[in-house]
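Please describe our next protein:
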Amino acid sequence: MTVFHRLNVAAIERETPDAVAITLRVPDETEIPLRLYPRPTSDAQSPGQR
C-alpha cells in the first residue's frame, strides 16, 4: 500500500540559472522507509537546447 507523507520545504537553493535544489524537512516523529532503486539519470533539456 502506498503511503504519502506531508513534508515541508526547508530550503530552495539556486544551483545554476536553470536548476534549483529543494531540501525537504522530515518531522522527527515521521518514520519513512526508503526504497532506492538504481536507474538511469535523465538529461532534461529546455526546448532551446535541442
Remarks:
- The chain has no helices and two strands.
